[in-house]
């Protein structure tokens, strides 16, 4: 797919990502769209006659020349800040995002994407974070980073910036999705943070180079945050707002939504409790809760050291052996384990404590247990 031609096509009025994708999936080449008749254009899903006339007239009435110059400038501006332009038809395009409804046709990326970014988890929340919210965001981002899981957020003030900074401090990767052109950092106070993100991750935007932050950009930005991730954690949010929009996108994209319970009586940050009440999000108290919920998805990067098989210590009794064999490689909650083996929770606890004394398992916060 010729990048210059693709960018030129985006200048046609009323052609957004969905229609651009429909046109390219039908014609396979932007050049064929430039010369298509109205009759040919209306065969494309989502292209009604009025829009087909607009497209046809645009390329026959001189609009293409200005559009081509604009496309050249976009490429030049991207090169100036060392931004890569990736399209939906490129193999480098993020795998998770490709599969969502309404994926961006074009992404501007500053920094580098990594293979294991497909195991990313997003952390989003209010711009006016409380001390409690700050601590939660820091803890989740740090713990995820230490497990080798990329943290995604939106570079906004508050929870977003805290999550990025904590992931970097934890030695991990982080991706920041912008609501402006990749060459315009918003808010500008996060310029230094953005530079650090590019060093251990990437800045990502579907906005064109030079595009200033604008209110309509941010809800669309949020669908990319959730779309890049296999799960989204909401840390402090009002009942309405950007984080709740991100949660809705994640829910619609069939991605797991997690919510850190908010403090009681703080109605301005009651959104997470609302998500939990509506059963749209899973209540989480620690990163172990997330690992348990996503254990099958995260298994490829949560391997035992050096890939060595885990061997139980000798002299396990029949009950201990059954428990040990039933435990996954990721942390598991005691109630889930009890359900797996058909024992009472109290019996499971007694045997788990015995296994811990024998060095076979390790207790984690939140009644979680990890097989060693």
Which terms summarize this structure?
alpha/beta, 13% strand, 372 residues, 3-stranded antiparallel sheet, 12 strands, single chain, 9-stranded mixed sheet, elongated
Radius of gyration: 24 Å
Give the number of DSSP strands: 12
Q: How far from one another are the termini?
A: 49 Å
DSSP helix count?
18
Kindly estimate the percentage of residues that lie in beta strands according to DSSP.
Answer: 5-15%
Fraction of residues in H or I helices: 40-55%
Along the chain, the helix and strand elements come as: HHHHHHEHEEHEHEHEHEHEHEHHHEHHEE
Kindly state the mean pLDDT as a whole number? 92
Broad shape = elongated
Low-pLDDT segments, ≥5 res = 303-309
The profile of the biggest β sheet is: 9 strands, mixed
Could you say which structural class the secondary elements and strand pairing correspond to? alpha/beta
Order of strands side by side in the largest beta sheet?
A: 1-2-6-5-4-3-7-8-9
Give a written overview of the molecule.
By secondary structure, the protein is of the alpha/beta class. It contains 18 helices and twelve strands. It has helices at 3-9, 17-27, 30-34, 38-41, 49-60, 63-80, 95-98, 131-146, 159-169, 191-199, 217-227, 242-252, 271-277, 287-293, 295-298, 318-326, 334-341, 345-357; strands spanning 83-87, 106-111, 121-125, 151-153, 174-177, 201-205, 231-235, 256-260, 282-283, 332-333, 361-364, 368-371. It has a nine-stranded mixed sheet, sandwiched between helices. The termini are far apart.
């Amino acid at each position: 797919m010729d990048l210059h031609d693709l960018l030129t096509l985006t200048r046609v009025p009323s052609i957004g990502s969905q229609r651009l994708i429909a046109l390219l999936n039908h014609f396979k080449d932007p050049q064929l769209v430039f010369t298509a008749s109205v009759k040919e254009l209306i065969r494309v899903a989502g292209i009604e006659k009025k829009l087909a006339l607009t497209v046809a007239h645009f390329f026959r009435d001189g609009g293409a020349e200005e559009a081509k110059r604009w496309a050249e400038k976009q490429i030049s501006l991207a090169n100036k800040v060392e931004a890569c332009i990736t399209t939906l038809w490129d193999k480098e395009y993020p795998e998770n995002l490709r599969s969502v409804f309404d994926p961006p046709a074009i992404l501007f990326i500053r920094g580098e994407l990594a293979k294991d970014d497909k195991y990313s988890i997003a952390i989003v929340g209010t711009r006016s974070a409380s001390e409690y919210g700050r601590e939660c965001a820091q803890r989740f981002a740090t713990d995820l980073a230490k497990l080798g899981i990329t943290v995604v957020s939106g570079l906004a003030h508050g929870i977003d910036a805290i999550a990025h900074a904590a992931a970097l401090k934890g030695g991990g990767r982080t991706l920041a999705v912008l609501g402006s052109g990749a060459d315009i950092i918003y808010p500008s106070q996060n310029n230094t943070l953005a530079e650090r993100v590019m060093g251990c991750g990437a800045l990502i935007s579907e906005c064109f180079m030079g595009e200033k932050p604008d209110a309509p950009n941010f809800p669309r930005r949020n669908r990319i945050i959730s779309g890049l991730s296999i799960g989204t954690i909401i840390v402090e949010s009002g009942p309405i707002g950007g984080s709740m929009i991100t949660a809705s996108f994640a829910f619609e994209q069939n991605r797991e939504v997690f919510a850190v319970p908010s403090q009681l009586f703080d109605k301005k940050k009651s959104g997470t409790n609302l998500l939990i009440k509506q059963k749209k999000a899973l209540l989480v108290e620690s990163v172990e809760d997330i690992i348990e919920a996503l254990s099958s998805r995260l298994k490829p990067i949560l391997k035992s050291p050096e890939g060595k098989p885990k061997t139980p210590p000798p002299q396990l009794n029949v009950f201990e052996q059954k428990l040990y064999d039933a435990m996954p490689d990721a942390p598991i909650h005691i109630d889930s384990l009890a359900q797996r083996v058909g024992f009472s929770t109290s019996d499971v606890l007694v045997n788990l404590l015995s296994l811990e004394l024998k060095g076979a398992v390790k207790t984690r916060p939140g009644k979680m247990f990890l097989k060693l």
